[in-house]
Amino acid sequence: MFHEHHSRSFLKSTTWFILAFITTFTILTILNKDWRIGLTEAVMVQILKAFLYYLHERLWNKSNFGQKLKKPTIVMK
Hints:
Elements: H1 6-32, H2 35-61
Helix pairs in contact: 1-2
């Protein structure tokens, strides 16, 4: 079984946060026709989503569902 370190989960959460924030901000700005409202709502939503994503990743790391260890291949020269 593979184990993902907390730092990897944190980096993945951060890069996802940036991508999701830009998307959420753009959509909310278009819908509200005001970038300030879009920014405020996007910040609140994305902070919550980043935290939930991190927890989701950590929970999945406790499961080995769908994972299989590959046996190492020995290469003879």
